[in-house]
Design brief:
Blueprint lengths: L4 E5 L5 E11 L5 E8 L2 H16 L11 H12 L5 H19 L9 H13 L4 H20 L26 H11 L5 H10 L3 H5 L6 E2 L4 E4 L1 E5 L4 E5 L7 E4 L2 H20 L21 H15 L9 H13 L4 H8 L4 H7 L4 H16 L3
Antiparallel strand pairs: 1-2, 2-3, 4-5, 5-8, 6-7
Helix pairs in contact: 2-3, 3-4, 3-5, 7-11, 12-13
């Protein structure tokens, strides 16, 4: 008799064939088994062969009657190497908080659309935002879709459910006068160069904080954006930008080159003073000993105090410096294609959708220009 299959006598006297195969470890590091019983020997052999084949190919093996929570463990483990560490951690946190407590014990093959609708209502009643609920729902839908593709489910129950509509978060951007006020407030501060660069270049916070000196050609006046900094609760990493369109070159003005040159000289002086403890990661904007900066700390300890000093709302985020750059470019009539390239957007449409609040002004200016040409003729 082949291994992995045991002959079992049931309480009613009938005989069954139990398939028992180790397929990995659970979240606590304990061995995890697929255990299924069949009436017919041939069915048990077929299932055994399928499980062993999937396990050897690295495909997540899940029992046919597995609970949703166990399946999500296997699904997430299978995605780990294709996700950034902070993205994987975000998925795991969302599943732990918003999915497993409600759907974790349900059998995967018995999950119905009505149960998903009830789950969504429970999350909304708990006070979660539509954006958060849509995020959790998207994970569940993706996981169920994978189960369908693997032949574990006949259909994706989430396809019959509509997630709550997401209300677009109101974007915050500073106008030209407010920017001038902020520049005065950060003059001579530790992160003046960082904030001015973000306002000038439109870099994402992760791109600015992941910038290395090897990415900057000070003589040529060009910054190559090709990496970003990511944090999880336990570690950090600097890797490639998320998409190909995000990799770009941005020419910088002479005054920005001067700022960066001075910043580099001051950084070199500090590195020499604390050479014994300096962490050399080649970062343009490191912490006090050369390590990476946490965005939350930069916001709380430096940007918000500067905003308050300038008499501006301290609800402005680091990312809003990027929004400010984009808004100012479009408001000044810069070609949207050039703006999209500077921001690292995949298309002009994305730029115009995100910054649609600038469009009415652009339309008014276009009408005025046409009127000056065609009016009263």
């Amino acid at each position: 008799m082949p291994s992995h299959i045991l002959k079992r006598k049931r309480a009613d006297g009938s005989v069954g064939y139990q398939v028992r195969i180790a397929v990995g470890k659970d979240r606590d590091g304990k061995p995890k088994f697929v255990i299924e019983t069949f009436d017919k020997w041939a069915d048990a052999v077929a299932r055994k062969n399928k499980i062993l084949s999937e396990r050897d190919e690295g495909i997540a093996v899940v029992p046919q009657r597995t609970p949703v929570g166990e399946y999500l463990d296997a699904w997430l483990a299978g995605k780990k190497h294709g996700l950034r560490p902070n993205t994987h951690e975000g998925y795991e946190r969302a599943l732990d908080l918003y999915v497993r407590p409600y759907l974790g014990t349900r059998r995967l093959d018995q999950l119905k659309p009505i149960e998903l609708e009830t789950w969504i209502s429970q999350l909304l009643d708990k006070g979660l935002s539509p954006r958060t609920v849509r995020y959790a729902f998207g994970l569940v839908s993706d996981a169920l879709g994978h189960a369908v593709r693997m032949g574990m489910l006949p259909r994706n129950a989430a396809k019959s459910v509509k997630p709550p509509k997401q209300t677009r978060r109101e974007m915050q951007a500073l106008d030209a006068e407010q920017v001038r006020g902020l520049l005065k407030a950060i003059k001579g501060s530790r992160h003046e160069t960082l904030f001015r660069l973000m306002l000038y270049s439109g870099l994402r916070p992760s791109e600015a904080l992941g910038l290395k000196w090897s990415d900057i050609d000070l003589e040529g006046g060009v910054i190559k954006v090709q990496r970003s900094l990511t944090w999880t609760s336990k570690e950090w990493s600097v890797g490639d930008t998320k998409t190909a369109s995000a990799r770009r070159s941005i020419p910088i003005a002479k005054w920005m080159v001067c700022l960066l040159t001075t910043h580099r000289r001051l950084q070199a002086t500090r590195r020499m003073k604390i050479a014994d403890i300096w962490q050399d990661h080649d970062l343009v904007f490191p912490d006090e000993i050369g390590g990476p900066l946490r965005p939350a700390n930069v916001l709380r300890r430096h940007l918000r105090p500067a905003l308050r000093k300038a008499g501006l709302p301290d609800t402005i985020r680091l990312y809003d410096l990027r929004h400010t750059c984009a808004t100012l470019m479009l408001a000044e009539g810069l070609n949207p294609k050039i703006a999209a390239e500077r921001l690292g957007h995949a298309s002009i449409r994305m730029t115009m959708d995100v910054y649609s609040h600038v469009t009415p002004t652009m339309q008014e200016e276009a009408s005025a220009k046409l009127d000056s040409i065609l009016g009263d003729q």
